[in-house]
Structures are given as structure tokens and as C-alpha cells.
Design goal:
The chain is α+β, with helices and mostly antiparallel strands. Helices cover 14% and strands 32% of the residues.
Length: 553
């Protein structure tokens, strides 16, 4: 079942061996062959021949039955109360599921592309009211065409409190990635286009303290441009969301390779350090350690270059003025803007020679033998100079005491990383899968009656109207994101609340099922057939989704 239909979409992948059954073959019109199945999991409505997958490679026709090829991900609670990893194999009706545990006996084979198998222990059978397993939206399927209840509406009873978790996947056209890149290098001007495979997929946003921000994706790139732009955007977003590397270029700027949780590669060079501070902050932090060993310090920075003897830190330490005259625009004492253009050289500037930002020396204040340290905000660039008789800086070997302070600057720099946040607006399909009156779900979330997670990972819900969630992809299970060729991103989302609150907001009470029943039978629309199994992956340190204080308190 490795071939997919020729609908305009994404490249095919091998399908996992165990598939989640969704519905029996139901030809939708007379023109469709009787052995085909129409998939209604997204607006494309693929007509899938036997043995083939749809355009998204997530649904297939297996012997006249529409099946979900990706397995459902479950989390198991660790002893420390966080989300742990394990394997759960859904069983056919009447059979107990196998629950993975450390040190079990037989192994469960994972689906294709999943992590290696782990030993599986025998199931104790005691899952009535259990709170040790959490069903995530990864692999759960969607509610399209909107009126369907969520695939899993799970009742549990942690700490004696009746809870309900509504589990689904959303088709997100209105979504983006906010990418934080820890680097001092100049990536490109704000609002510059970011390209992937030649197509515009986002733009450069602001520079924050030691980091450059990119905004990638969004509905205008997914649907508002050419078909090629939409495909490039959705493929880029899926790759970054699933923690894979992506190559990007910035108009008028750098070439990047970024991957969540990894150091960025800028113009072919892997970044190492995130700055300890701007030039002014670096001067202030290390002023006492430098005082007495040096007569002047210049910390080169694209934004705020610091000069120690003019800076308030130097004045408080009674350091005499050195007579240095700097290029750039003086802000407050010891702080200079625009000493050079942005670039990939010293301190994020375009200079390779730090002396180029010094205009000269005041002969009434400077003197031969004056000791000058020039360094970048990360300590990666540093040089030691002594003024000669003509007040010209002459580079010499750096004294051990000064070298120690420069190394400490580097020591205080955190490792450069790339952080990828998924930002999505949860619209009609998601809310209708929870309740027939969607506004009540929105209000309940704003009233902190509902805990929103994405693949079991904690999600930040933005203030204001609607349900706009943001989540760190590194805290989500592997392979949490999929695509449909509309194009749009498919992402998991779960809503957990008290049973009474779910009833009050008009939830689909007839679809609420116990965790035990879910583990035995899988999704509510499986029609008695076996469903898939998959590694349950939880990031270290994630809180347990059912332990939110407002829910249990």
C-alpha cells in the first residue's frame, strides 16, 4: 500500500503495517468505481483505489475499507508525574491492549518510520478510572466535514475527579511557525522575504536579545500565492514541525539551515554561542573583573557598542578617560549606535578589523603604553593592543588575566539553538468536534475551565478572540504534524475539562467513552475492527496533561 493517488499533493511514503479503520467503502457517486473509497478527512475528497493511499499518504483503501495509515499516539505517566514514553497496541474488540513498560518481555513491532520497539508488558486490565494514559491527537484523524464529533472523547478520573478529554486533529490553513534563531550574525533586513526552494514562505521579523526571529508560513503563503508557493510552504512547515532540517535563504541576507533543537547554520558555519548581552551590558557585567588589568575596553556590537571608561560602570570604578574617539552615533555615555553595518563579522557587524571603528585618540588623555581590549559580545573575537609613541594601537599577545575574562564572556554565552513554535487558530472544525455550540468552548477556555494541549504538550492560548494556540514543537511527540494538499497543516489538539463543564458547554455526551473502552476498541467509528499502535512520546519535563490544577483543584 505504497502508491498514492495522483491528486496534486505531497510525495508518497510507505504506509505502516497496522492501520486505523475509519469506515467501510461507500461510493459517493456513480462515476466512482465501486472498489474505490472516497476519503472525506479533508476537502480534497480523494477517491482511493484498493491498495493505494490518498494524496496526503495518511489514508488508504485497504480491501474496500478506508483506513488511517498513521498510528494514534498515547502518553504514559512517568513516576515523577511527567509524560513518559511507551507503546500501546490497540486490540480488536474483546481483547486487551498491550501496554509497554520498562523491562517487559515480548516486543511490539512499531509502525514503519516509528521509533524502535520496546518490550511490552502484560496489561493488568485495571484501566477503569485510570489516569496513567493520555490519548493524544497525533494520528487520531480529523472531524472534517465539521459536523462529526471528535474521534476520541475520553472520560478519565484522576484524583477522583471526573474529566473528559476531547481528542482530534485539526486541518490548519490559518497557522504559522515562529522561529527563534540564537545568533549575532546578520540574517537579513526586517520584512525581507524568506525563501524555501526559491518560493517565498515567510519573512524576517524583529531582532530580540541575542536572537533573530522569523515568521514562516501563514494562510497567505499557503493559499494566497501560486500552487508551487503553497506546496513549498506546507512542506517546509511540516518538516520544521517534525524536527527535520530545512534550508532557507533570505533576500539580501544569509543562507540558513535550521532545525528545531539544533544549532543554526549561517552561511555554512554552525553557530556556537548566543551573546551574553549587548556591548553595553557586556562592559557593565565584566567591568570589575577587567578594572586594573586594562585601560580601555571596547565591546563591538552591531546594535550597542560599549566603551568601558565612558560607561557608567567605568566611572563608578574611577577609571580615567582613555581619550578614545569612536565612530557611530553616541547614545548615552559609553554606548554607541551604528558603529558599522550589520554583517557576519565582529559582534554582528560587517567588520573584520575592529580598529576600523576607532577614529583616533585625544592626545591630552591618551598615552603611550595604554592597554586596550577589543572583544565581541560572545568573546569569539578578541584582540589585545598597546598604544605606541604615536598613539597607534599595536596588537600583542593577550595577558593571561585578560584571556581569562574573555573566556568567561564566552562561558556565559548559552549555546546557539533554533526554537520552532507552532502557532495556529482553532476554527470551526475543531470546535464543532467538541460541541454543537462552539462559542461555549471558546468562553470556557478563556475562563480557564479547559486545558488545551497539542500532542499532550502544554500550549499557550493567546488572549483576545478565538482559540489561538502556540506550542513548542520540541515538546510534542515526534511526527506530530501532517499535511493535506489543499494545502494545509494537520496538527493534534486536545481539550481537557471537568465532565460537568463539558456537559454544560453542550458537548457530545453520547460520544463520551471511558479510557478502558478507548484502549480496547480504538476510535468510536472503527466499526469493531483493529486499530493501529504507535510509540507514545513525551518530552522530558512536560507536565502531565490531566494534572492541571484548575481541573483537579
Amino acid at each position: 500500500m505504497t502508491e498514492h493517488t495522483k491528486t496534486d499533493g505531497l510525495p508518497g511514503v510507505d504506509s505502516p503495517p497496522l492501520a486505523q479503520v475509519l469506515e467501510r467503502a461507500r461510493p459517493r457517486n456513480e462515476r466512482m468505481a465501486g472498489d474505490k473509497v472516497e476519503c472525506n478527512a479533508c476537502p480534497v475528497l480523494c477517491q482511493i483505489s484498493p491498495g493505494r493511499t490518498g494524496a496526503c499518504d495518511r489514508y488508504a483503501n485497504q480491501g474496500g475499507t478506508l483506513v488511517r495509515t498513521d498510528p494514534v499516539v498515547l502518553l504514559r505517566r512517568a513516576l515523577d508525574g511527567t509524560a513518559d514514553s511507551g507503546v500501546v497496541a490497540f486490540a480488536a474488540r474483546g481483547e486487551a491492549p498491550a501496554i509497554a513498560a520498562a523491562g517487559g518481555a515480548p516486543e511490539i513491532a512499531p509502525a514503519a518510520g516509528a521509533a524502535p520497539a520496546v518490550p511490552a508488558a502484560e496489561w493488568s486490565g485495571n484501566f477503569v478510572g485510570a489516569d496513567s494514559v493520555f490519548v493524544t491527537g497525533v494520528g487520531s484523524s480529523t472531524t472534517y466535514p465539521d459536523y462529526k464529533p471528535a474521534p476520541f472523547i475520553v472520560a478519565s478520573r484522576p484524583a477522583g475527579v471526573d474529566l473528559v478529554t476531547v481528542v482530534t486533529e485539526g486541518i490548519f490553513s490559518y497557522c504559522s511557525l515562529k522561529v527563534k534563531i540564537d545568533t549575532d550574525r546578520y540574517l537579513g533586513p526586517e520584512q525581507a522575504n524568506v525563501r524555501c526552494k526559491g518560493e517565498v514562505v515567510g519573512h524576517v521579523s524583529t531582532i530580540e536579545y541575542g536572537s533573530q526571529m522569523l515568521s514562516l508560513g501563514g494562510v497567505h503563503h499557503l493559499t494566497g500565492g501560486s500552487k508551487k508557493e503553497g506546496r513549498a510552504t506546507v512542506e517546509m512547515m511540516e518538516a520544521l514541525g517534525n524536527k527535520r532540517a530545512v534550508d532557507l535563504t533570505i533576500d539580501g541576507g544569509a543562507q540558513l539551515q535550521i532545525q528545531a533543537g539544533r544549532a543554526p547554520i549561517v552561511n555554512g558555519v554552525e553557530e556556537q554561542r548566543m551573546r551574553v548581552g549587548c556591548g553595553s551590558a557586556t562592559v557593565g557585567i565584566f567591568a570589575r573583573q577587567l578594572c586594573g588589568q586594562v585601560d580601555e575596553v571596547v565591546v563591538v556590537d552591531d546594535h550597542i557598542t560599549g566603551v568601558l571608561t565612558e560607561h557608567q560602570a567605568g566611572r563608578c570604578l574611577d577609571m580615567p578617560a582613555s581619550g578614545i574617539r569612536m565612530r557611530g552615533r553616541k547614545s548615552t555615555p559609553g554606548r554607541y549606535f551604528q558603529v558599522a553595518n550589520p554583517g557576519t563579522g565582529w559582534g554582528g557587524t560587517d567588520i573584520a578589523d575592529p580598529l576600523s571603528i576607532i577614529e583616533g585618540w585625544d592626545a591630552e588623555k591618551a598615552r603611550p603604553g595604554l592597554r586596550l581590549l577589543m572583544t565581541s559580545t560572545t568573546g569569539e573575537h578578541a584582540a589585545w593592543y598597546i598604544l605606541d609613541d604615536q598613539l597607534r594601537p599595536v596588537q600583542q599577545d593577550m595577558p593571561e588575566g585578560i584571556r581569562h575574562v574573555v573566556e568567561r564572556i564566552g562561558e556565559n554565552c548559552e549555546p546557539s539553538l533554533t526554537t520552532v513554535l507552532f502557532l495556529g487558530g482553532a476554527g470551526g472544525s475543531l470546535r464543532a468536534g467538541v460541541t454543537e455550540n462552539p462559542i461555549l468552548l471558546t468562553r470556557s477556555i478563556k475562563q480557564a475551565l479547559v486545558n488545551v494541549t497539542c500532542g499532550g504538550a502544554p500550549a499557550y492560548v493567546w488572549p483576545g478572540g478565538g482559540i489561538t494556540v502556540m506550542v513548542d514543537v520540541m515538546r510534542m511527540p515526534d511526527q506530530s504534524f501532517g499535511t493535506v494538499p489543499t494545502p494545509a497543516i494537520v496538527a493534534p489538539i486536545e481539550f481537557t475539562m471537568r465532565l460537568a463543564d463539558y456537559q454544560a458547554l453542550g458537548g457530545h455526551m453520547d460520544r463520551v467513552r471511558s479510557l478502558e473502552d478507548v484502549l480496547r476498541h480504538g476510535a468510536w467509528h472503527n466499526d469493531g475492527a483493529p486499530t493501529s499502535r504507535r510509540w507514545a512520546v513525551g518530552a522530558a519535563g512536560n507536565p502531565w496533561p490531566l494534572s492541571t490544577t484548575p481541573l483537579l483543584g
